[in-house]
Structure prediction request, 525 residues.
Amino acid sequence: MLIIQIIYRTGKFLFYAALLIIFGACQESTQEVDGKKGDEKSASSHGTTQPNIVYILVDDLGYGDLNLGMDTLEVFKNPFIKTPHLAKLASEGLVMTDHYASSPVCSPSRAGLLTGRTPTRCNINRWIEDIELDGTEYLRNDEITIAEKCLEAGYQTAIYGKWHLNCQDWLKKENWTAEKGSFPNQQGFQTGMVSKENPHLTPFMNANSQKNPGDFFDLNGNLLETLKGYTSQIITDSALTYVKRRDKTKPFFLYLPYDAVHERIYNPDEYDEMYHTGETNRDVYYANVTYLDAQIGRFLDGLKEMGLEDNTIVFFSSDNGPEVTRVYFGAWRSYGTSYPKYGQKRTLYEGGIRVPGIIRWPGKIVPGISDEPNSTLDIMPTLCEIIGVESPQDRALDGSSLLSHLLNGDSIVRKKPLYWQYEFPENFALVGEGYTTRYDGTQRIYEKERLPKVSIRSGNYALRGIGGEKFEPPEEFFMFDVVNDPDEKRELSRIDPELFEQLKARLLEIHRSVQEDRLVVAHQE
Ligand SMILES: [Ca+2]
Prediction:
């Protein structure tokens, strides 16, 4: 396999020009490789050209929490946290410096990933609480998910990990099979094992944490007995068993939403003893990232041992930016960092939504680095194009297919800018030790007290909208160059008023459309 490292920050155009030249030069050998793989595939696997798909989503991992060991990158080089397996995945895949989650918090982010729709369109506006039953925010059955599209394309589907997309009573088994609902088997997942929310205490389950979790259900709604071990290890074990026992006549789509590195964090002793920063809680967080990395590495090794590495696309992403410590009871170890981006989980600054992103598809995607802005909302159209089905046509989708960018280095063509809406921003800066004390030794001074609730990104620029009643259009706007000004210090509306007005009009246009969709869902209640 041809390994190419693209020099980072040589400019986007140079990057694509280089990629195109390289692709032209290796076109012949790529086709040869594909031909060989085709033989192997028909001999050892499902015999179709459809690749297997693995989507690894981790929880609350910050933009600055990884060390991918790439000299050509200015980011993803945390000097303390060791993530060698993700570094290996990065060296074999495309590392995306400008990859975004669809929301700065868990539930909407997952809704956006699975549906390709701005989560506010689905009326999923904030994280869904364990204690809330029969609430109004859940992923409705009539939403179409990537798992359902995979079924349509002849895939088998599975999920192991955290669901966090409904507020119904999980202990009522009839809910799991009801027509109206948002349990995994109502959204296209055929088999698996899920936890409802995060690994912290709930009124129902007094044993849910990353250690010996007691809150996992099978997809028929049976509460599993307390599972021995740590959740990252348990999810990996389950995923490997699934892949081994799968129907080998069909490709598979496997969704792995790991619950690390969200509280309540626990690690095996040898990991807890790995770091010595002088703060035990910080050590435990760093160890949790490293333990997650090791378990993802074990899963990827398993794929390789089973001969599935070449015909499997692996996606890696995080659902939102890093948490800050002491936000709720039990959250003492959330020492993630969005460095060098401004903001954190729950905010629509870059640090709340920009997350690490990697895609590996051997022989198809040339390893390297992309700084093209993209989001988990792009996964629906991208996967549909890869697996050969039409993406949903009867509703608004907000992403674009990344396929020609991934395969050929083409720029991503977007009909509308990337857009985020989060009506419940909370400023936890003052308690955010994990964020304000940055690993370069500086103390972050959090200057902005008012947080945006709507944001768009277009080219190098982000427009942030602030104020207004809930779900009403924002009243004030601020524009930043988020490529050259990661701290978002230099407001540009007066520097380039024409662009500012253009972006404002685009933002308000999308806001109107999203609000119309949201009201349709909200009025169903
Ligand atoms: Ca999360």
Remarks:
- The longest helix spans residues 12-44.
